[in-house]
Amino acid sequence: MNLVESVESEYMNEGFPEFAPGDMVRVNTKIREGEKERIQAYEGTVIRRSNGGLSETFTVRRVAFGEGSERTFPLHSPNIESIEVLRYGAVRRAKLYYLRDRTGNSARVRERRRTATEK
Amino acid sequence: MLKGIIGKKVGMTQVFDESGNAFPVTVIEAGPCPIVQIKTESQDGYQAVQLGFGTRKQNKVNRPENGHIQKANVSPPRALREIRVDNADQLSVGSMIDSGIFSVGDYVDVTGTSKGLGFTGVVKRHGFSGGKKSHGGEQDLRRPGSIGASSYPSRVFKGKRMPGRHGGRRVTVQNLEVIQADAERSLLLVKGSVPGPANGLLLINKAVKAGD
């Protein structure tokens, strides 16, 4: 392990479940409003994970009331309280940008049936 | 106390503060540096310590240099550099300086040799804006334009900024905040960037102009 990696490992978030593009996730983020802190959830499909190490980010896309929205989160930000995987998706590429051009049924990701060893 | 050390740039990354803001940091391997020589007022006319850093094969050390480091009884260093001090008599030859001389929140000046960029045009070297990309100016994209008037003065003024060798000079970046200092791993983490490539030699001094 070199010195850069050893510095990065100190700041990393651990204990998040494994997730990949195509999965449906709920991201619980800490929001500070004045003095108070509360948890806000964002739910949707992961369309990409990029970079590595401490600067890794992932993007979640959701379509609400017919309007698409995307949010990019730094994976290791202290503001991310937890990540829940709601559904595993069966996809054949790493970046799901094609979902942006689709609406309705074709914008859905097939669910991946997991084998017993995966669980 | 001594307030300077020699180090090498390892690389850059980012870290988060408590409120979740990410900011860029440079990872520096600083020290451990043996004191090779102490310069005193009476002998040398000024007070300083000479530090060593890194390692070198014994067969790459020439005889005059070998004699010099033998006197301090240290292994051959990659580089020797001097740091000015006020109280040279309180330090001893052969003792080790590590990155623990800095603490979190200190401000430092970092000196290094910037990356050599070779023969460079005026846009990159001096920040000229170049020509227009449209409206018929396409042939002057990155050219310097006029370099002076004609019959008077009939010459180009000295110091006129022109293309030439860029980078590869000694550069000091002032007032970088220390984010982390760990003597065990010889680690120094500073906010922002420092001159030169990875593995480049750096001189880290306490900030001349105190922080903020």
Description:
The complex is a heterodimer of chains A (119) and B (212). Helices cover 8% and strands 41% of the residues of chain A. Chain A is mainly beta. The model of chain A has no long low-confidence stretch (mean pLDDT 87). A 5-stranded antiparallel β-sheet of chain A has the order 4-3-2-1-5, with no helix packed on it. In chain A, 14% of the residues are buried. Chain B has 3 helices and 12 strands; from the N terminus they run E-E-E-H-E-H-E-E-E-E-H-E-E-E-E. With 212 residues, chain B is mostly beta strands. Chain B has helices at residues 41-44, 63-72, 122-126, and strands spanning 4-16, 22-30, 33-39, 48-53, 79-84, 96-97, 107-113, 118-120, 164-166, 170-182, 187-191, 201-206. Chain B has a 6-stranded antiparallel beta barrel. Chain B is globular and about 70 Å long. The interface between A and B is medium-sized, with 17 and 18 residues.
Keywords, please?
A: 119 residues; mainly beta; 1 helix; globular; B: mainly beta; six-stranded antiparallel β-barrel; 12 strands
Topology, element by element:
The complex is a heterodimer of chains A (119) and B (212).
Chain A: H1 3-11, E1 24-33, E2 36-50, E3 57-64, E4 67-74, E5 80-87
Antiparallel strand pairs in A: 1-2, 1-5, 2-3, 3-4
Chain B: E1 4-16, E2 22-30, E3 33-39, H1 41-44, E4 48-53, H2 63-72, E5 79-84, E6 96-97, E7 107-113, E8 118-120, H3 122-126, E9 164-166, E10 170-182, E11 187-191, E12 201-206
Antiparallel strand pairs in B: 1-2, 1-12, 2-11, 3-4, 3-6, 4-5, 7-10, 7-12, 8-9, 10-11
**Side-by-side strand order of the widest sheet of chain B:** 1-2-11-10-7-12
Q: How many H/I helices of chain A? A: 1
Based on helices, strands and strand pairing, what is the structural class of chain A?
Answer: mainly beta
Give the helices and strands of chain B as they follow along the chain.
EEEHEHEEEEHEEEE
Helix content of chain B: under 10%
DSSP summary: helix tally of chain B: 3
Instruction: Please write the string of helix (H) and strand (E) elements of chain A.
Output: HEEEEE
Amino-to-carboxy terminus distance of chain A: 31 Å
Distance between the amino and carboxyl termini of chain B: 22 Å
Structural class of chain B: mainly beta
Low-confidence stretches of chain A: none
Gyration radius of chain B, rounded: 23 Å
Radius of gyration of chain A: 16 Å
Strand content of chain B: 35-45%
For the largest sheet of chain A, list the strands in their spatial order.
Answer: 4-3-2-1-5
